[in-house]
Amino acid sequence: MIPHLSERALILAPVGRDAEIAASMLAEAGLRSQICRDLPALLNGIDHGAGFALVTEEALHNRDLHPLVGWLQDQPEWSDFPFILLTRRGGGLERNPSASRYLEMLGNVNFLERPFHPTTLISLARSALRGRRRQYDARARLEELHRGAEKYRTLFDSIEAGFCIIEMIFDEAGKPVDYLFIETNPAFARHTGLSDAVGKRMRSLVPEHEQHWFDIYGQVACTGEAVRFEDAADALGGYWYDVYAFRVGDPRAPQIAVLFNDITERRRMEAALRQSEERLRALNETLEERVQQRSHELELAQEALRQSQKLESMGQLTGGVAHDFNNLLTPIVGSLDLLHRRGLGTDRERRLIEGALQSADRAKMLVQRLLAFARRQPLQPTAIDIGGLVRDMRDLIVSTSGPRVQVELAVADDLPAAHADANQIEMALLNLAVNARDAMPDGGQLRIGVNCDSMAADNRLHLREGRYVRLSVADTGIGMDQQTAEKAIEPFFTTKGVGQGTGLGLSMVHGLAAQLGGGLTIESAVGHGTTISLWLPTSEIEAGKEAAGPDIAPVKLDHGMALVVDDEELVRASTVHMLRELGYDVLEASSAEHALAIMRTEPGIDVLVTDHLMPGTTGTDLIEQARALKPEIRALLISGYAENAGISAELPRLTKPFKQIDLAKSLAAL
């Protein structure tokens, strides 16, 4: 629908001067109108957009009205197109017998008897137009709801945990006896073995299902109190489930959402551990001390396993969310960058655009921290001098810590080089310094130490035996108890107030250390400060400053043809727009197969810009096949931070989200 046509009046009055008179009256009232010569022209006008139609009774008399009736019946759910019908007799059923037929046929119709006063016509026209505007508002809300539903459905179908919504069924005494499946996700069938469960009752699918499951869900439905528990379902094959159930929707409709995971293997391991402990306790008294020691080791291993599984699951979820968020950020950053570079709008609007761009950059940094925790951010580890890096950052740390914090450096001499990413280590050190400052609200001492220690193999920290450069940040602040210290590296866990931090600092540092092959330790006690140590593997290569590459300015390219391949429409559209501004002729493809078909018919393509993870063929494989067709083609791979596996280090790559200057630099470097 064309926006500037959506509020016009369409006039169908083929006899006399009614059309010209009505158009003149509407024009004097500031309302746009268009005269239609016949019914097909009226229908064509409605299709292109209109606020209402002004039709005379004789224009409909003895005409084939089936097309009009068909259009009205097929109009969208938000639409109830308004008509004003000019009659020679009154619109009431008692004075105009045909009014009933027109009312049934047109639906949203107002009758106006001729001759009429212009004020009456204008009043009816404006009333019809107001009603049409409300319909447009309803359309916008429906479209927004549909978009939200599509996003929800994507997440719903992609999560690994089983999920279902059930409606409880009670007997006359109020006892829960069954439940009906309202909705399930694909993982539901994998975890339970029940397929096509929607619309069926649990008792019909599994007649022997234990009553205590119905009792638990019935309690949630009646009280509205969510519950988390672990239990076995013998009727489903003896599987164990970790379950979280909560009430959804109208409390009068006893519907429960159930999120669950299969933990059968973990429970078997726990049962095996308990059996081992029982056998150990059954040994004779001479082995009692050894049995106790072995039991303690098993408990530590079990706790380490649980923590490892917990962090691994959180890391996988975090990495997936951050990857999808990068795809969402790419068109946002690209569009804001375009508006900012063009300097469009008033001063206030330009400031708003700059603020939005800054917020997008902050969001990009947040994604980097999430990926650091998930151990999926792209690193460029080299041999670096940690002692020199700390000395270079002293002024920044002092200014960040404030005048009430005394900063002290303790850097050992003759330190070996560490195998690490300098930029990421700087970010980690700054985060640790800020945390230390916040832990000393009344001031104190911040001591940053760098030394070389030998470390035995440590399964808890996943460290191999060897030499490590230890970067420690110690404060004299309020400290942490053991329970807080154990949770400190979890993402979004924070002891700060609302608005004082995201809770990603320590989790990011922990993820960075693990990705580099090192580890992180926390030593703290309430009232005695905290020491956080970052253990980095040493490098056999001597530390040295690498020569910085030239800062490639974005050159305005005025020739060449580029092929952009991405299955995400918004990301593809943003990239295409950037390339066209840089002077390229651009072709688009939504998949690798589509791109190869275009290349076979379009030999003039100079540059291939492709996403990596796509349904079917990946971007890496596409580049190989494209070079087989055209060896001289230049190729640039665009990837999210979570997509590094399987990508050659020699392949030119640009990570999402990016601005036009980033794209231009990458193309200039090909």
Automatic annotation (TrEMBL):
Residues modified as 4-aspartylphosphate: 611
Signal peptide positions (record): none
Signal listed as a keyword: no
CDD domains: HisKA
InterPro entries: CheY-like_superfamily (IPR011006), HATPase_C_sf (IPR036890), HATPase_dom (IPR003594), His_kinase_dom (IPR005467), HisK_dim/P_dom (IPR003661), HisK_dim/P_sf (IPR036097), PAS (IPR000014), PAS-like_dom_sf (IPR035965)
Leading EC class: transferase
Catalytic activity: ATP + protein L-histidine = ADP + protein N-phospho-L-histidine
Positions of the Response regulatory domain: 561-670
EC numbers for this chain: 2.7.13.3
Domain Histidine kinase: 320-540
Pfam family for this entry, one: Response_reg
Superkingdom of origin: Bacteria
Gene3D superfamilies, sorted: 1.10.287.130, 3.40.50.2300, Histidine kinase-like ATPase, C-terminal domain, PAS domain
Keywords: Coiled coil, Phosphoprotein
Residue stretches in coiled coil: 266-304
TM stretches of this protein: none
PANTHER family reported in the protein's UniProt record: SENSOR HISTIDINE KINASE (PTHR43065), TWO-COMPONENT SENSOR PPRA (PTHR43065:SF42)
Name of this chain's protein: histidine kinase
